[in-house]
Amino acid sequence: MVCCFLSEGAGDFYCSGNDLSTFTKIPEGGVQEMARQGAELLRKYVRAYIDFPKPLVAVVNGPAVGISVTVLGLFDLIYATERATFHTPFTQLGQSAEGCSSYTFPRIMGPTKASEMLLFNKKLTASQACELGLITEVFPDTSFQSEVWTRLKAYARLPPQSLALSKQLIRSVEKERLYAVNDAEVERLMERWTSEECFNAVMSFFQAKAKL
């Protein structure tokens, strides 16, 4: 039996965030239908993390953007290489928080530091994220994989039921609250995705990117 679930990026990035090109590919049902489909997908995706019974471990091997950062508050152990960064540029794109981060981030790092990330788009270095308690530990890039996998192999030998039941004790108290937060965030994002402000912000992003 596997004792935990591992999330690790491939290549130089851990995750580059959601594909914003969906805003340029409006389905038959229009923007409202696009927002509804996206919202339901996001709701189920985040809920899967909330409900996951085994320990969740993230191995952040490079820059992380958007949803890959916000769901970290639902993980149980997060290791990062020193070159990792953590960025949630939601308001820059006319959007709002997701992944329960509107609740988990203030609890983890305090409301003002959470606001720097979620409202004002501050990008954190790995060391900053570790100091704020968002991630567990930072490793030199040269020894990252070997050090992390040595630990993970040791954790894999721990009794799986004990791990799962211990996680349940830690996490179950807040499950209903997390469901409610996830629902509220999704509803707000549905409104954002259908707004003129969000559309204009995303188009501005593409225009700026095209000039690079």
TrEMBL record:
<dbReference type="InterPro" id="IPR014748">
    <property type="entry name" value="Enoyl-CoA_hydra_C"/>
</dbReference>
<keyword id="KW-0413">Isomerase</keyword>
<dbReference type="InterPro" id="IPR051053">
    <property type="entry name" value="ECH/Chromodomain_protein"/>
</dbReference>
<keyword id="KW-0576">Peroxisome</keyword>
<dbReference type="InterPro" id="IPR001753">
    <property type="entry name" value="Enoyl-CoA_hydra/iso"/>
</dbReference>
<dbReference type="GO" id="GO:0005777">
    <property type="term" value="C:peroxisome"/>
</dbReference>
<dbReference type="GO" id="GO:0005739">
    <property type="term" value="C:mitochondrion"/>
</dbReference>
<dbReference type="InterPro" id="IPR029045">
    <property type="entry name" value="ClpP/crotonase-like_dom_sf"/>
</dbReference>
<protein>
    <submittedName>
        <fullName>Enoyl-CoA delta isomerase 2</fullName>
    </submittedName>
</protein>
<dbReference type="GO" id="GO:0004165">
    <property type="term" value="F:delta(3)-delta(2)-enoyl-CoA isomerase activity"/>
</dbReference>
<dbReference type="Pfam" id="PF00378">
    <property type="entry name" value="ECH_1"/>
</dbReference>
